[in-house]
Design a protein that fits this description.
Blueprint: H1 3-24, H2 29-33, H3 43-63, E1 66-67, H4 77-85, H5 106-126, E2 134-138, E3 142-145, H6 146-168
Antiparallel strand pairs: 1-2, 2-3
């Protein structure tokens, strides 16, 4: 990444973190645990999923990759970002990222997400790695460049912030 691209990525990492944190801010325990439908996730479960996914994608980017002989093309990156943010496209959650009660509380899940995001911001800010020279196997997207995986990592909390907003506007959401 050149310095301008690196700065843009860091800015987007901050922005998507802030969008998600704004969506979950100030919730009571009852609000965090509310299910709008019996088959849907609560905001607490969404927070767990976002935190676990953050750490898993970061692990792919930083330690579970294969080096490429030549940089991956950047032409798919815009499409990856658009598809990741398009909630009309249903994405099945990988089993390893499903909510299973890993955290003692909603707050603990949010703190885990925040810590993971800070680690990603530091890695991008301080690193010189060319993520287009790495290939990863993402559970949903398959074999992609680490740069594309980074795009998914950035977009993922934004996607779920919209889901949180939908829950908060659902009939019966606790006041």
């Amino acid at each position: 990444m050149n310095p301008e691209e690196r700065a843009s990525v860091v800015e987007r990492l901050h922005l998507s973190r802030d969008i998600f944190l704004d969506a979950v801010a100030g919730l009571s325990a009852a609000q965090a645990m509310y299910h709008p439908r019996p088959d849907s996730w609560s905001i607490e479960q969404i927070a767990e999923h976002v935190a676990v996914s953050e750490h898993e994608m970061f692990r792919l980017i930083t330690s579970q990759y294969a080096n490429l002989d030549a940089p991956a093309s950047s032409e798919n990156e815009v499409g990856v970002r658009e598809r990741a943010l398009d909630r009309s496209i249903r994405i099945e959650c990988p089993e390893e990222c499903r909510p299973m009660g890993r955290f003692a509380s909603f707050v603990e899940a949010i703190l885990s997400f925040t810590a993971g995001r800070e680690e990603a911001i530091r890695f991008i800010s301080e690193g010189q790695d060319n993520l287009r020279m790495r290939s990863v196997v993402h559970p949903y997207a398959g074999q992609i460049s680490a740069q594309e995986c980074l795009i998914l990592l950035i977009a993922h909390p934004r996607r779920h912030a919209e889901q949180v907003r939908d829950i908060k506007s659902a009939p019966g959401f606790p006041s």
